[in-house]
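Marked as duplicate of an earlier ticket. Keeping the data here for the record.
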Amino acid sequence: MNHTIRPLRVGCQTYTWEMRGPAWHGTPNDILAAMAAAGYAGVEFSNNMIGDYYDRPEAFRAAVAGRGLTVVAFACSASGFTDPKTEQADMAEVERGIGFAAHFSVPLCLGGPCNPSRDNYDAKLTYACGFYAQAARRAQDRGVTAAVHPNSHHTSLVTSPAEYDRFMSATAACGLKYNPDTGHLVRGGCDLLKIFKAYRDRIVHVHLKDVDAGGKWQPLGQGVCKLPALLDFLRQTDYDGWMVAEEESQLAWQDPNRAIAVNRESLRALGC
């Protein structure tokens, strides 16, 4: 019997605009228009970029559908989920994100554990593991899959292979899934395919970025991330989630709309 390989679905994330901070003066509708014009099929907004649509999910659904797009995930971040002093506010934001994700039946992608300092690392990571476990259970109660998205920024508590192993092992039993990011993995010193293979059974959503050997962000296909091999791996293992492209390179600072269009062209060249 021939094995039918399902096509990989491609969306776009909003961090390309979010990273610009006050320099970005547009609206969620402007971002949706840019994503549609670039040829993406799916959209992943964050709680920091959703604007007043956060309280108007049906209006957001209409805005997305009107541009021929699909909501594929919702990203949620707060303080970094490592400090008991912010637990109440953090969980309130997560609960709000769960409600929004539930409206669209999509994964809730939680930012990875972060803290300005690595002092008392063990205590901070232990607390974070408990917080994510609680968030995952609350999401499950609403029919939502919660996934974690570690990054490689200087505040991240999960960057190295050993740290991934510790964190992922500690959260394996609670139902927390995984949203790997290709650029952050390589930038943090991980072997891309080894991490994907190690945690393939927990991967429900994928972020695609590229980075050069010096850790500088690059447009997709212009860095050292082994994207063709990764895409083959996802196809061969019947990955049925979405791949969402992000762009943080210099081109994104200059022209975010053009940057995501360049990424879409690169993904088409890779058969996506």
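See parent ticket for discussion. The first strand starts at residue 9 and ends at 13.
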